[in-house]
Amino acid sequence: MSAKPLSDEDKKKQISVRGIAQVEDISGIKEAFNRHLHYTQAKDRKVATERDYFFSLCYTVREKLVGRWIRTQQHYYEKDPKRVYYLSLEFYMGRTLTNTMANLGMQSQVDEALYQMGLELETLEEKEEDAGLGNGGLGRLAACFLDSMATLGLAAYGYGIRYDYGIFTQKIFNDEQHEETDDWLKFGNPWEIARPEYQIPVHFYGKLHYPKEGGAPQWVDTEVVMAMPYDTPIPGFRNNYVNTLRLWSAKAPTAFHLSSFNVGDYLNAVCDRNLAENISRVLYPNDNFIEGKELRLKQEYFLVAASLQDLLRRFKVSKFGTLDKSRVDLSKLPDKVAIQLNDTHPSLAIPEMMRILVDIEGMSWDDAWSLTQRCMAYTNHTVLPEALERWSVKMLEFLLPRHLNIIYEINQRFMDKVAQKWPGDFPRMGRMSIVEELPEKRINMAHLSIVGSHAINGVAALHSEIIKETVFKDFFDMEPEKFQNKTNGITPRRWLVLCNPSLADLIVEKLGSDDWLTDLSQLRKLEQWAEDPQFLMAVSRVKNENKQRLAHYIEKEYGIKVDCHSLFDCQVKRIHEYKRQLMNILHAITLYNRIKANPNANIVPRTIMIGGKAAPGYWTAKQIINLFCRVARVVNSDPMVNTKLKMVFLENYRVSLAEKVIPAVDLSEQISTAGTEASGTGNMKFMLNGAVTIGTLDGANVEMLEELTNKEDMFIFGMKVNEVEALKKKGYNPYSFYQADPELKCVCDMIRDGYFNRENPDLFKGIYSNLVNHDHYMLLADYKAYIAAQDRVARHYASPTRWAQMAVMNIAASGKFSSDRTITDYAQEIWDVKPCKDILPEPHQTK
Ligand code: D6G
């Protein structure tokens, strides 16, 4: 097929964030694509499936990475900088193909090459499974951080688990959530490379042997599982850096269960291999909730044990693997290694590091402790009590006896320090102990993490203050210098260039370059065009195109037609009571009642969308999904209502769906009870894409408001943290709010009386009674303010120019929320490493 002539649109594309399409690159891509179709997929064009094309394209793009990857790793060995290790049980990566092309600046070339071969890039992109190795914000944050660390040229590594099954696929039937396994590896993963040569043994169970001559007890008679690494390249944004995400998969050792007592039962011994390999089978599907199961504890230790051995191996070798004697001096460890614990999930790294240094390397306790503390730093992500990890001593004793022993020793020494500072203050010692006695003996992993780290940070300014004043107050009183704040951020590459290229191009055109993509604070300059009618029109046009694309998706997937002129009002995040999706539903029912009561009133049309997964065992969260879907059914089928109000549940919300939804939204719902959402990052993604926020003064919303030049450009409502606390103290009575507000009372009564579920009218009585009697997250107390804020939203949306101005002012104020800024802060204030803006040379040849 011959090349299509360049239209004006094509010419514009050439100065697009999607890269510049050069003729020689296009022919190179076509050649590589055909080579992979032939040699890697072993297919010809007559029999090739779309998936074959997808894989051929992935390998074509991957080829552009490998030279850079090898070169970057060589560069780290040559320069030997301090390395950063980000340990996380979750890396919510989503898709890789488009991100890789975007970061290498080759989207236009690939698009053109495929077009010339009669194929469509978008269709192939849709073939990719999401790598859903995370639940929500915590896992996606880890993924955004990897992008920023590579973009800032940090010698950084992600360490995690290669779960065979990621976060479950959510299916809605009969208005209810059902879970299906996420078999994301079923067609193979073109981005990973197995590295069997770096397999590492991990020990479990066993017992302690106390040597007669004294000294540290020995951990003996253990069961071994092998940790097999799979490496995924993490490209920086157009800087030729490619870092590594190393994910561990559990493998039974060759001799697993083939010991003497098993001789003669070879087949059963082979089948038993599954037991060991179950460790990396599945991601625990809970967000902000810890289940306390043995398999999860195994996962946590498996990650930590494999990663520490691996990073110590890397520390001990240098200059391409030759042992450099001076470097085996472990006292230099904190000069070369920073370990960031993403929540307490990998906090066994602290006793594991002590075990390695004391038991294996023969170091004194004090020296080992100093090195451990100087390497480790801990990020706290939540103050919700059900999310704070506490492991039963019984379980630890059984699974990791030496670690329990070390934790006791850490605690003893720490308690001595507390007693020294506050002699005789036994209640304080009780509060600060790593070992809790009631209701059963448990290890408080947050306390362990604080004691074993040199830095502890919250994830937004408000959250960092809250932890100092509440859950960790005693620790703050003791060592205030350890406590820091690092407000979360998002990568503008995925969350703008990739998901909203038209808006990115518009900004490039206005700012005259794309430098702002690695220095997002430059977005502030857009304020000068906030009154420019042409710019406002262009921003609205992009939003409308995105809305049309989403409307098309909604119609195709759910058969619901939505009006693109209506206000797209959206709350996407995990379903949790504290996030208050139920309050959003109360508003939807309120609107329904108002339209029914006054069909001719001039009501601003809205499309209310909620998306998110409920943890499979979280009954109330599932009820909330069920209620939303049932209300939606009534609303959407009522001709008196459905021209003004539509409700859509966005099934199976995940990274790739977020990329379609976020650019198309007008109003972002960030409505958690003040003091409960540590940061939020969805809030930032919406802001960057020109949505206006309705929200409480919670998490990073506070800083978003601070960044806005005009405070009216965000719809803030509801109680502040101190007001929530004061009302709790006074005694909160939700029933009085219910009785005092006829509109609220009517909405609650409809839920109680089964208005939306007449065939099963008792279905939501529990929701009603919980609301009016307990209402732990104070929805009824904030309802009036929320409705009033929603009314203000509608009034503003009725003026398109005013709304577009608000959108522009929000985009302009979103620069602080780049994860590049967050990572720069971690680098300077916790890790003591220097971001490097230099671009590595192109790798022409690799050694
Ligand atoms: C990645 C990239 C590859 C490198 C390998 C091992 O797979 O080029 O050789 O990592 O790196 P280290 O674990 O020795 O740093």
What secondary-structure arrangement, pairings included, does this model have?
Blueprint: H1 8-13, H2 23-40, H3 50-79, E1 83-87, E2 91-94, H4 97-104, H5 107-116, H6 121-125, E3 131-133, H7 137-151, E4 156-161, E5 169-173, E6 176-180, E7 193-194, E8 200-204, E9 207-209, E10 218-220, E11 223-235, E12 242-251, H8 266-271, H9 273-277, H10 294-316, E13 317-318, E14 322-323, H11 333-336, E15 337-342, H12 349-360, H13 365-375, E16 376-379, E17 390-392, H14 393-399, H15 401-421, H16 426-432, E18 435-436, E19 442-444, H17 445-452, E20 455-458, H18 461-469, H19 473-478, E21 483-485, H20 493-498, H21 501-511, H22 533-558, E22 567-572, H23 581-597, E23 606-611, H24 619-637, E24 645-650, H25 655-661, E25 667-670, H26 682-688, E26 692-695, H27 701-707, E27 715-716, H28 721-730, H29 734-740, H30 742-753, H31 765-773, H32 779-797, H33 800-812, H34 819-831
Parallel strand pairs: 1-4, 1-15, 4-12, 15-16, 16-20, 20-21, 22-23, 22-25, 23-24, 25-26, 26-27
Antiparallel strand pairs: 2-3, 5-6, 7-11, 8-11, 9-10, 11-12, 13-14, 17-19, 18-19
Bound molecules: 2-deoxy-6-O-phosphono-alpha-D-glucopyranose.
Arithmetic mean of pLDDT: 95
Number of strands: 27
* CATH architecture name of the largest domain: 3-Layer(aba) Sandwich
* Count of helical stretches: 34
* CATH H level, superfamily name of the largest domain: Glycogen Phosphorylase B
User: For this structure, what is the CATH class of the largest domain?
Assistant: Alpha Beta
- What ions, cofactors and ligands are bound? 2-deoxy-6-O-phosphono-alpha-D-glucopyranose
Uncertain regions: pLDDT < 50 for 5+ in a row? none
Strand content: 5-15%
Anisotropy-based shape: globular
The structural class is alpha/beta
